Amino acid sequence: MSDPEVAATKGKRGVKPSGKPTLKTIAQMTGLAVTTISRALNNAPELAQETRDRVQKIAAEIGYLPDRAALRLKTGRTNVISLVLEPDEQIYGFGSSIVSGVTEALRDTAYHLVITPLFRGVAPIEPIRHLVRNRMADGVIFSKAESFDERIRYLLDNDVPFVSHGRSAWPDQHPWVDFDNEAYAYGAVKRLAEKGCRRVSVVLPESALTYTDHLRSGAARAAAEAGIAHEFAGDINSFSPTDAIRNYVVKRSRRPDGPDGWVCVSEVSALGVIGGLNEAGLVVGQTAHVVTKQNSPMFAQFQPGAETVHEDFNDAGFQLGSILLRRIAGETEGLTYLKQPVFDWRG
User: Fold this and answer.
1) Does the keyword Transcription regulation apply (predicted)?
2) pLDDT over 70 percentage in the chain
3) Distance CA 137, CA 117 (A)
4) Residue by residue, what is the 3-state secondary structure of 78-133?
């Protein structure tokens, strides 16, 4: 063997032993020392790539899984990254796109991604406390960051590596990944003004979320510069049921001062707005105009009258995973990523 830590073993090489696979199992099958097997599974760069590939291939074939309890006792690590998701975040592929991106970031590392659900009616801090108290993960990812998010404060105070999808207003620096929603709202309102709209309504997210303030600021600034009226939809938000959004838009559109332009921050809320405009007798793209963020290319296929700005959740997931790995490795500076919107007004 070329590797200096290759050792003879008592077992028969190349034969898959019975029972639960362990490091010793792989050692017996390869003729490598247990310490070499462990380092190969953790992608130790000092080992030859051929050795790492061989060990990892055999581990996958025999169904080897690390004993996380033993690993935690020995090293204090779990090799687990926890992504906290709400059931609603699966709508239009947000959850699956984030998972795909994070998984890609964790490729060729020792880390595994585990989804931690945030159930309805449960305070967002609860799954975070559970993860920290039970030392269930080496790092945490969560979304819907609030201006003064207690999850961020709690994780900072406990010195737990994390990254949030969205920013906060805490003065302490913390890792985050975000989309520039102020720039998006500014560009969207400017576009509606170019289309001839005289009053624009923005369907905002929940008021506690940090990016709600960013959207308000961008929309107000663009409307003032364009010399048009603007408003923020009342009684509903972007997380409201589509029926509620549609009914609101119908009633608001039938008033004499009804908006002729609408800004949405999600495809789901945009569907509710478009449904309401149609029911009110308006034609999207002609007598009323809609700009929305989109993640899925399917939206434009069904609603060609609306104009869209792509928000890449897959890329967001990759950045979340990459930044968290850097934080776990001990980095403390430059752990933020702000994605700028790209305006391509071809509809």
Assistant:
1) yes
2) 88
3) 14
4) CCEEEEEECHHHHHHHHHHHHHHHHHHHHCCCCCEEEEEECCCCCCCHHHHHHHHH
43 CB-side CA count, 13 A: 7
CA distance 210 to 180: 11
pLDDT at 319 over 80: yes
For 31: left if phi > 0, alpha if psi spans -120 to 50, otherwise beta; the answer is left
Query: 59-114 pLDDT, tens per residue?
Result: 888 877 666 555 554 545 788 999 999 876 555 568 889 999 999 999 988 899 99
Q: What are φ and ψ of residue 217, in 5° steps?
A: -65, -45
Return the pLDDT at 91.
52
Which pTM value belongs to this model?
Answer: 0.79
Q: pLDDT (tens digit, 9 = 90+) per residue, 139-149?
A: 999 999 999 99
Instruction: Give backbone dihedrals phi and psi of 65, rounded to 5 degrees, phi first.
Output: -130, 135
Closest by Cα among 313, 324, 333, 315 to 81: 324
66 burial via Cβ count (<10 Å: 0-12, 13-18, 19+): middle
The span from the CA of 129 to the CA of 225, in Å, is 45
How far from each other are the two terminal CA atoms of the chain, in whole angstroms?
61
